[in-house]
Amino acid sequence: MLLLIAALSVGLFAVAQGAHTGVSLDTLRLSADKLSGDGPVDVPFIAPGGDAVLTGRVSHIRDGDTLEIGGVPVRFTDLDCPELGTSAGETAKQHLVRAARGRALSCRLTGEMSYDRHLGACTRDDGRRIRDAMRSKGICS
Protein backbone atom coordinates (compact mmCIF):
# COMPACT_ATOMS: atom_id res chain seq x y z
CA MET A 1 0.00 0.00 0.00
CA LEU A 2 2.85 2.36 0.86
CA LEU A 3 4.44 1.71 -2.55
CA LEU A 4 1.17 2.50 -4.34
CA ILE A 5 0.73 5.75 -2.41
CA ALA A 6 4.33 6.71 -3.13
CA ALA A 7 3.88 5.95 -6.82
CA LEU A 8 0.68 7.95 -7.12
CA SER A 9 2.15 10.88 -5.21
CA VAL A 10 4.92 11.28 -7.81
CA GLY A 11 2.61 10.60 -10.74
CA LEU A 12 4.00 7.21 -11.75
CA PHE A 13 1.00 5.38 -13.18
CA ALA A 14 -0.10 3.94 -16.51
CA VAL A 15 -3.44 3.30 -18.18
CA ALA A 16 -4.00 0.56 -20.76
CA GLN A 17 -4.06 1.90 -24.30
CA GLY A 18 -7.20 1.33 -26.36
CA ALA A 19 -9.44 1.30 -23.28
CA HIS A 20 -13.10 2.07 -24.02
CA THR A 21 -15.55 0.93 -21.32
CA GLY A 22 -15.65 -1.12 -18.12
CA VAL A 23 -12.43 -1.66 -16.20
CA SER A 24 -8.97 -1.53 -17.67
CA LEU A 25 -5.83 -2.64 -15.93
CA ASP A 26 -2.24 -1.96 -16.62
CA THR A 27 0.80 -2.78 -14.60
CA LEU A 28 2.90 -0.15 -12.92
CA ARG A 29 6.49 -1.14 -12.33
CA LEU A 30 8.12 0.58 -9.40
CA SER A 31 11.74 0.46 -8.49
CA ALA A 32 11.20 -0.73 -4.93
CA ASP A 33 14.92 -1.02 -4.36
CA LYS A 34 14.94 2.75 -4.09
CA LEU A 35 12.07 2.63 -1.59
CA SER A 36 12.69 -0.53 0.43
CA GLY A 37 15.71 -2.38 -0.97
CA ASP A 38 13.65 -5.42 -2.04
CA GLY A 39 13.84 -5.12 -5.84
CA PRO A 40 11.16 -4.29 -8.45
CA VAL A 41 7.47 -4.75 -7.60
CA ASP A 42 4.46 -4.96 -9.94
CA VAL A 43 1.52 -2.86 -8.75
CA PRO A 44 -1.76 -3.16 -10.71
CA PHE A 45 -3.54 0.09 -11.52
CA ILE A 46 -7.30 0.19 -12.19
CA ALA A 47 -8.68 2.94 -14.42
CA PRO A 48 -11.84 3.47 -16.52
CA GLY A 49 -11.93 1.56 -19.79
CA GLY A 50 -12.46 -1.89 -21.29
CA ASP A 51 -10.80 -4.35 -23.63
CA ALA A 52 -7.77 -4.14 -21.37
CA VAL A 53 -4.75 -6.38 -21.03
CA LEU A 54 -3.37 -7.19 -17.58
CA THR A 55 0.25 -8.32 -17.63
CA GLY A 56 2.49 -9.46 -14.83
CA ARG A 57 3.64 -12.42 -12.77
CA VAL A 58 1.22 -14.80 -11.12
CA SER A 59 1.06 -13.92 -7.43
CA HIS A 60 -1.52 -16.49 -6.25
CA ILE A 61 -3.52 -19.41 -7.61
CA ARG A 62 -7.00 -19.75 -6.13
CA ASP A 63 -8.27 -22.83 -7.96
CA GLY A 64 -8.14 -24.48 -11.39
CA ASP A 65 -9.67 -21.56 -13.27
CA THR A 66 -8.83 -18.49 -11.16
CA LEU A 67 -5.48 -16.90 -10.40
CA GLU A 68 -4.15 -13.53 -9.33
CA ILE A 69 -1.65 -11.23 -11.01
CA GLY A 70 -0.27 -8.68 -8.58
CA GLY A 71 -3.24 -9.39 -6.32
CA VAL A 72 -5.80 -8.82 -9.11
CA PRO A 73 -8.03 -11.93 -9.45
CA VAL A 74 -8.73 -13.21 -12.98
CA ARG A 75 -11.35 -15.90 -13.71
CA PHE A 76 -10.77 -17.60 -17.07
CA THR A 77 -13.69 -17.13 -19.46
CA ASP A 78 -12.49 -19.92 -21.75
CA LEU A 79 -11.97 -22.64 -19.13
CA ASP A 80 -14.21 -24.55 -16.72
CA CYS A 81 -12.56 -26.69 -14.02
CA PRO A 82 -13.99 -28.79 -11.20
CA GLU A 83 -14.56 -26.95 -7.91
CA LEU A 84 -12.17 -27.02 -4.97
CA GLY A 85 -13.24 -29.42 -2.25
CA THR A 86 -13.32 -32.29 -4.74
CA SER A 87 -10.37 -34.45 -5.69
CA ALA A 88 -10.74 -33.32 -9.32
CA GLY A 89 -10.76 -29.67 -8.19
CA GLU A 90 -7.56 -30.15 -6.18
CA THR A 91 -5.96 -31.85 -9.20
CA ALA A 92 -7.00 -28.93 -11.44
CA LYS A 93 -5.49 -26.40 -9.02
CA GLN A 94 -2.21 -28.31 -8.84
CA HIS A 95 -2.06 -28.48 -12.64
CA LEU A 96 -2.57 -24.70 -12.86
CA VAL A 97 0.18 -24.25 -10.25
CA ARG A 98 2.56 -26.22 -12.51
CA ALA A 99 1.38 -24.38 -15.66
CA ALA A 100 1.42 -20.81 -14.33
CA ARG A 101 3.15 -20.27 -10.98
CA GLY A 102 5.85 -17.61 -11.20
CA ARG A 103 5.30 -17.09 -14.93
CA ALA A 104 4.56 -13.80 -16.61
CA LEU A 105 1.05 -13.80 -18.10
CA SER A 106 -0.86 -11.52 -20.40
CA CYS A 107 -4.62 -11.59 -19.73
CA ARG A 108 -7.12 -9.97 -22.09
CA LEU A 109 -9.97 -8.83 -19.85
CA THR A 110 -13.59 -8.56 -20.96
CA GLY A 111 -14.43 -5.63 -18.66
CA GLU A 112 -16.93 -7.82 -16.79
CA MET A 113 -16.71 -9.11 -13.23
CA SER A 114 -17.78 -12.34 -11.52
CA TYR A 115 -17.92 -11.73 -7.78
CA ASP A 116 -14.52 -10.16 -7.03
CA ARG A 117 -12.84 -11.54 -10.16
CA HIS A 118 -12.14 -9.90 -13.51
CA LEU A 119 -13.10 -12.14 -16.45
CA GLY A 120 -10.51 -12.82 -19.13
CA ALA A 121 -8.33 -15.21 -21.13
CA CYS A 122 -4.61 -15.53 -20.35
CA THR A 123 -1.49 -16.40 -22.33
CA ARG A 124 1.86 -17.41 -20.83
CA ASP A 125 5.13 -15.66 -21.60
CA ASP A 126 6.03 -18.54 -23.97
CA GLY A 127 2.89 -17.86 -26.06
CA ARG A 128 0.88 -20.87 -24.83
CA ARG A 129 -2.69 -20.18 -23.72
CA ILE A 130 -3.53 -21.24 -20.17
CA ARG A 131 -6.70 -22.84 -21.57
CA ASP A 132 -4.64 -25.14 -23.78
CA ALA A 133 -2.21 -26.03 -20.99
CA MET A 134 -5.11 -27.00 -18.69
CA ARG A 135 -7.18 -28.85 -21.30
CA SER A 136 -4.22 -30.91 -22.53
CA LYS A 137 -4.43 -33.08 -19.40
CA GLY A 138 -8.20 -33.57 -19.73
CA ILE A 139 -8.85 -32.06 -16.30
CA CYS A 140 -10.84 -29.01 -17.39
CA SER A 141 -13.16 -28.25 -20.29
TrEMBL record:
Keyword match Signal: yes
Cross-referenced InterPro entries: SNase_OB-fold_sf (IPR035437)
Domain of life assignment: Bacteria
Signal peptide range in chain numbering: 1-21
Keyword field: Signal
SUPFAM superfamilies: Staphylococcal nuclease
Protein name in UniProt: Nuclease homologue
Organism field: Roseivivax halotolerans
